[in-house]
Amino acid sequence: MTFHDLTALGWSDHFADQIDQAEAGAPARITDIHRDRFTALSPDRPLALIASESVGPMAVGDWVLQDGLRILRRLTPTGEIRRAAPHTLLPQMIASNVDTLGIVTSCNNDFNPARIERYLAMAISANAAPLLILTKPDLAEDPRDFLRQAERISPLIVALVINAKNAEDVQRLSPWCGPGKTLALTGSSGVGKTTLRNALTGEAEETGDIREDDAKGRHTTRARAMRPIPGGGWLIDTPGIRELALTDAAEAIDTVFADLSDLVTHCRFSDCSHETEPGCAVQAAIASGAIDAARLERWRKLQREESHNSASAALARSRDRVRQKVYNSGKKRGRQKRS
Q1: pTM of the prediction?
Q2: Domain termination residue (choose one: 52, 74, 96)
Q3: How does pLDDT run across 158-187, given as a tens digit for each residue?
Q4: Which domain holds residue 271?
């Protein structure tokens, strides 16, 4: 069994500054979550931990203070990869303390600029560097066409075409996998995340095929896990995401669409809807060919959706607080009657 010092695990001053010297517990990093059971790594040994409800929600990649049996406290992360959970729209954590978010898509019908923009906003919200990994180049007549399309989406994107089945080609990801660094992989099912994971970690997880009619894949990764990369660094693989809804990401969306966010400040009217108003800088840019009209529509759609999801999540949180207050009040009255 190989053990790692705190720095190799990803420890930094960001976490050290949160700890009082007199505080109980030692640092460890969460690698697996199974309901209320947690696997973590400390410099001394792997740990099997439990946590009380007071600790709150946690994600793979979190740093915690622990006493060898229990999680005492979750340390504030550098960022959280999260989305709006289906149905409730409450924020759902996917991973924490990620340095680079590898957005994996393949050189076929899975390539979707609108979806890539969503993942890009997810990365920015989590303070993670976005890295677009274009897999399965053998499926395209010229993979460079997909690379050029990706680079037009945003200047924030660094994009690579990678053959996940070629170990030498996968080594091109090494700049994002150094000692203490954490790379997370996300994307649809069937794009090659598990193949990349196997190549990076030396594991042999089962991979799945894709349907030929729509390039959709089957889930092969069923749980989030953090695994060491030989030579240094950590990889967090995540299950394929079919629906990526964003919440609490308004600033990140404006960053992804910075070209449009800047243009609106030059419109003649401050309440311009960017449709038929005179002096609209956005429509002028579309007319000149500087901006794609479809990009404006994608920006509007994301803004509307994020606003709705954030408001719905806030309402759900408020209802949860009321229910918890009623529940606690009932428990208190029960104790008073028994006494």
Answers
A1: 0.84
A2: 74
A3: 999 999 999 899 999 999 998 999 999 999
A4: 250-329
